[in-house]
Amino acid sequence: MLGGEEIGEDLGYGVPRLLSPERVKAVAQSLGGIDAASLGARMDPQAMEAAEVYPSIWDEADVFDSYLAPLYESLREFYAAAADADEAVIQAIT
Question: Do you know which Pfam families this protein is assigned to (predicted)?
């Protein structure tokens, strides 16, 4: 998912990246092969908490169903729509 061409300046968490339409299609295909239920079965909240994965919520009850799964599904939908439209994607964390 990460990759592409660096564009612009560091916004505080790294340089924004441009993913070509071809790369977007590859990301969409990869994400399409892992649904939220499969992701949930592989998620280890204790390991995520121990690794200090942001945000520090992994020890909260039902965090997967209420937080991660909906965001993951939105990400899958976003990349699928961009791939279908043959669009590039700019990735930036601000």
Answer: DUF1877
